[in-house]
Amino acid sequence: MPELPEVETTRRGIEPHVSGQIVVAVHVRQPKLRWRVPPDLSRKLKDARIDCVERRGKYLLLRTSSGTVIVHFGMSGSLRMVSNEVAPQIHDHLDVCLRNGLQLRLRDPRRFGAVLWTDADPLLHPLLAGLGPEPLSEAFDGNWLQQSARRRRAAVKTLIMNSRVVAGVGNIYASEALFLAGINPARSSRRISSRRFGALAEAVKQVLGEALEQGGTTLRDFVNGAGEPGYFAQSLRVYGRRGEPCINCGALVKARVLGQRASYFCPRCQR
Ligand SMILES: [Zn+2]
To answer: Is residue 237 annotated as a catalytic residue, yes or no?
Structure first.
C-alpha cells in the first residue's frame, strides 16, 4: 500500500513534468474508483494550466488555473508520466494529456484510489480538513503527541496512525517508528512519558526521512518507467519480520493485531 514516502516521491517525480503545462485532454477509461471520477473532470481540466503539485498526508493535489485535482492512491494506485505513444494497460484508468506530449497516467488494479475535483480551497475539502499536522513539519513533536493522547484511550500505535493526530503515518512506518523509539505498540497512550513521546516523534521523522531518501533513487523511472513507479523496496527493521531475530537484541520479533492491523515488535526492546 502506498504510504507517505511513496506519495511524496511521486510528487517529486511528476512535478517537473507537469508544472506549468497546459492540459489538452483527459481520458477516463474506468470512472469507478473508490468514488466515481467526476463526469465533468475532462471539461474542467481541459485548457487548464497545472500550477504545482502538492501533498497533504497521503493526498496529492494537482493545483490548476481552474481548480484542484485531489488524488489518493488507495491500496494499489500509482501515477507516472508516459509519452503519447505508450498504450494503456488493463489497470490504467485515467490519463491527463499535456501539451508537452506527456501524459500523467493513473494505474490502480484494486480501484480503492480516488480522483476528485474541487473548485474551492482543497485544504478545506472534507477529506483533508480534519487532518493533523504533517509528520515532517515542526508542528508534529512530542508535545503534540502528548496533548493528543490526553483525549484518547487508544494504544500508542493506533494514536500515531490516526490521521487527525498526524497525517499519513501508515502501518509500516508506525511499526518502524515504535521499534526505533523502543515503545511497545500496544502500550496505552496515556502511560507514555513526555520524553518518550519526544523520542517517538523523532523516530517517525527518521523512518519517513530514510524512506524518502530511498525513494529518491527511483525518480528516474517516472517517465516511461516499467513496473510500479513510486513503490520502492524499503529496508525495514521490524515490519514483516515475525519470527526473525530482532536486529538489536536477537529476541524473536512478534506480531499481533492492533486496530485490525498487523503490528510487529520486539518483546524485549519495546516496552
Ligand atoms: Zn530486540
So the answer is: no
Name the grid cell of 243: 519470527
Residue 232 has pLDDT above 60, yes or no: no
Q: How far is the CA of 147 from the centre of ligand 1 (A)?
A: 29
Task: Tell me which of 3, 6, 8, 176 is the catalytic residue.
Answer: 3
Mean pLDDT score, 221-230: 56
Averaged pLDDT for residues 24-31: 97
At 170, list the grid cell: 501508515
pTM for this prediction: 0.92
Please say if 2 is a catalytic residue. yes
CA of 200 to the centre of ligand 1 (A): 17
- Identify the active-site residue in 111, 152, 261, 268: 261
Residues 6+ apart with CB under 8 A from 235: 214
Taking Cα atoms as reference points, which of 125, 132, 136, 128 lies closest to residue 163?
132
CATH number for the region 142-265 comes to 1.10.8.50
Domain ranges for the chain = 4-124, 142-265
